[in-house]
Structures are given as structure tokens and as C-alpha cells.
From TrEMBL:
Binding site for substrate: 62, 70, 135, 165-166
UniProt-recorded name of the protein: Beta-hexosaminidase
Subcellular location(s) of the protein: Cytoplasm
Source species, domain of life: Bacteria
Family statement drawn from the similarity comment of this UniProt entry: Belongs to the glycosyl hydrolase 3 family. NagZ subfamily.
Pathway note: Cell wall biogenesis; peptidoglycan recycling
Protein's organism: Thalassotalea loyana
Gene encoding the protein: nagZ
EC number annotated for this UniProt entry: 3.2.1.52
SUPFAM superfamilies found in the cross-reference section: (Trans)glycosidases
Amino acid sequence: MGPLMIDVHGTSLSQEDKELLQHPLVGGIILFSRNYQSPQQVAQLTSEIRKAAKQPILIAVDHEGGRVQRFRDQFTAIPAMYDLWRSSGESLATSQQYAYACGYVMALEVVSVGIDISFAPVLDINHISDVIGDRAFHHEPQAVASIAQQFIQGMHDAGMKSTGKHFPGHGSVKEDSHIALPIDKREKSTIFSTDMVPFTQLIQQNKLDAIMPAHVIYPSVDADAVGFSKYWIKDVLRNSLGFDGVIFSDDLTMAGAHYIGGYVERAEAAQAAGCDMLLVCNSRKASIEIIDNANLVVDNKSEQRLAKLVAKQGLDWSQMATNSRWQENVEVVSSIHELAQK
């Protein structure tokens, strides 16, 4: 698997899509709402992607729930993660039960249409961030870790690996890294003892299979945003925390990545910092520019890590309706919506 994760334009593949999929640097595809019409159509698309690639490829989607759920029609509506806490009567045990059901249903449905991973769960704290907000499980780090652990267990039981984001925590800085470069000026000790707690605990529990760093600068720790920082990725994640899973860059076309330079410079910097796979989303120009000009390598260690994220295909979509475990968990998920509206 190559180090680039790119996207495709529509609900089926163009000739240009097929050519890009065969490039040795391309090892992943991320799907968006524009790629979706129905479960049957997107299952056909993922099959077409694998056939066209002629090489191992990882297919991903952002399908956390709440505001960030790419497939809507016929898919179960997954609530925003903070609604699990609000709907539970602020019971940690009930929130965990809800989280398991949401993780299981989300993952089973996504895997059933040929997708390997959803970039979930969000391990940020619901504090002041506009872009995080109710995407987070809770406003306290220990509760985030406890509830997320059950969401991940549900994902794992459905055959999907987990991706914790946005390391070491995006919730305590207001700016949205899609449109700005957030700078979190808190002390290093505060960041490590609060925001990083869910990541640290879940790594220790061997629950996190992959991590996505934040496009945030923490100047008390390092001058670079996390996804471009050797200190954060190699010294903290790999060495101090002992994390040996996949590290994805966040989208290199986001405003939070602009300070590094052009698309080529961003891709090279992210790989040099230690990212295994580099996301380049919603810009065909950027994808081609990086493929044509960036000095990137296909790293054997990264390939081995990435291969572990490929989902074990179980049910296909046509079998879902007769699966009692899926039905039971869908009922739980539906009850969360009802309680959240009261």
C-alpha cells in the first residue's frame, strides 16, 4: 500500500480515477457524501475501486455520527456522541451501553458495503472548539476514555479497526483547522494531563488501531502542528506512549496545513514526521501535484501497519435485515435519538 489516500469524484469511477488508483503511491481512498446514492451503489463502487486498483487498497469514510455521517439514506442515523451522555441521564454506565451500540451499528453497516474503516472515534474533549463540540463524548477526559472504549469495542466486534482523533486533543482551542491554523497556548503539562488522557489510556489498553493527529500547534511543546512534528509523532506517540498502529495525517488541503508550504511540501513533511498515510481530500489538483512531484517512499513498516486495518468482510448489506444482533443494536441507537429530543 502506498502512502497516499485520495478521493474520487462521483458515484462511479472515471478513467482518470482508475489511472490514479493504479499509481504505486496511492494506497487509500476516502469516500464522501457525493460518492453515495444507496447502499447497493456504494458497495458496487467499493468493488470497482478494488478491481481498478490492481493492488491492495484501504477504503475509508468519515462516518462518526451526528454532523459527520456521509451516508444517510437507508443507513441508521448515528447520534452525535455527546448525545449519548445527555440521553443517558448523565449515567456513565448507560452512556457506555449506548456507545457500544453506536459503534457496532456504524461499523457493521459501513463494512457491509465494502469499506474498511470509518475515521472514528473522536477522542477530543467537548470544551470550547467550534468544530468539535458535540462530536466529543464528554467534557471530562476520563469519561471520554471510558465511553469511547465501548464505542471501539462495538467497532471491533463488527469487524472494523478504530482511529482515534485528533491527537493530542483539538477540543480546547476554538479555531477550526479546516479554515484556520489553531494555536493552543496552554502549558505542556496541562495538555498532557487533560486532553491527551483518552489517547494515553486507550493506547495502554491496546484499543487504538490508528491515530489521526490534529492540525494544531502547541507552542509549549513544539513549533510545528502535530501532523508535521517529529517530536509529537516519533518521540511522544511512538517512543513515550509505545503506539505501533497506523498514523494518518489529517487532510493536507486544510487551512491548518498551509503554513508548511505547497501540497508537495506538506506531503513530504508529514511523511518525514512519521505519518504512515497522507490524506489529500477534495482537490484533484493537489493529488496529481503530489503524485507527480513529491519525494515520497513506500515504506515497508507502514505497509504492514496499514494492512492490519483492512476489514474482515462479514455480512453484506442484503443480509442486514435478517441479522438479529444488528436489529437489537439499531433499536438502542434509535432510542438515543428519542431521548435526546425530550
